[in-house]
Amino acid sequence: MAYREWSTYWKYQNPLQVMKNNGFSWVRVGVLTPSSQLLATTPYQNWPSLGWNNEFWCSREFAERVLHEAAQNNLNQSVFFYFSDRATHAGQQDGPAEWLPFNLEQTASAIENHCYETASYFKTKGLNVKIYEMGNEIEYGMCSYYPGGKITQWNGQGTYLDYLRDSVWSKEVVLLKAAIRGTKRADSTAQIKLHISSVGWFDGIHQAFYQYMIDNGVPFDFIGLSYYTTCFPPGSPPPAQVTFGNFFQLCSLLTSQTGKKIIISEFSYPSSFVSDMGPIYPGYPFTEQGQALYVRDFIRICKPDTNIYGIFYFYPDYQIAQHSISEVLGSYGLFHNDSTYKQAMTAIRDELLNVDENTITLPKNFHLYQNYPNPFNPTTTISFNLLTSEFITLKIMNILGEEVETLIEEHREAGSYKVVWNSGNYPSGVYFYQMGTGKFVETKKLILLR
Length: 450
What we know:
It is built from eleven helices and 14 strands. By secondary structure, it is of the alpha/beta class.
């Protein structure tokens, strides 16, 4: 959104309005610790004349402007605190420079004041921020209290989770309580989210983190998770790709454990390949159509899942045209330019506004139908059409993405086919059936209900 004021982008339409018209209902905005007095003392219409200044990005004044426009477009508002003077994410959580000399108690006091002043500022501007997020991907600490910052790296003694509990989370509890206290003092109706990442590290850290916070009296309302299948922190080895099944099993476990609903704070998928990007998610190529299918299917899984409160698309307002600024974010964004948006935006509209669920199609040499009946017990029929002669596979997978059974693995001629799956002694639950050829893969969900 900043590019609208200080560059040539977004001169023809408001992206928030476009997103509202296509099914979006929330806006999530980050806030840094610095405030921009230059923006505060300059009428909004004169902001472009100031020229760009780094202090503008995610200042509370600029955040207020975006939130104000969100309210004008009837979009709910969510704010996340960086607790830093620059962007932070998992494992990179430096506090603002002026707080670096502070001890833990002084840092907690500064955080409480920052949250109180920021939430109070938004209230005085007439905003109704419904959810405040305490930091951004904070499982490895926050505000310089992280391994390699003010906390000594793990020495290999004991388990890593014990190290996090004893050395990192014990300090983070103090900071989080202060942040929540300051926010609630300014806005008693605000709901609180704790957001951590989930990019392939399934080592028990998610369950352990939230349980520790509950056990130590940190009051929060929502669990926040990031979910990406194609990117990972620069300089780190690529983690194992986290399948839809892996991720939603984690969501179910966390909700059962904590009683809290899940908000997917960040998810997205690229429409083109960018250097250093991870592998494609099977069946969803790095194309505009592949991106649309990924987004559509992700929403389709989320909609009936009672564990999921909501999902946020990460930086939807980026354009392909902005590749000169950030090629990666341009690929993940949902717009071509000021005037047109990608097919993924249409997919979101169709899923959320129930326009036409078949709008987005990826040309392929087969058509896979939804099984019938569904739910079923113990048998169900899977139908498909082959447009050309192909070697195909048709497999059943469990919610973890593990193969349960192979129904077809052979060459077949063009035509229409039906396959009956007898679930035998498999337990009740959600399963997936996946059909593939040499070039395309499609996956659908089925439910065994005994």
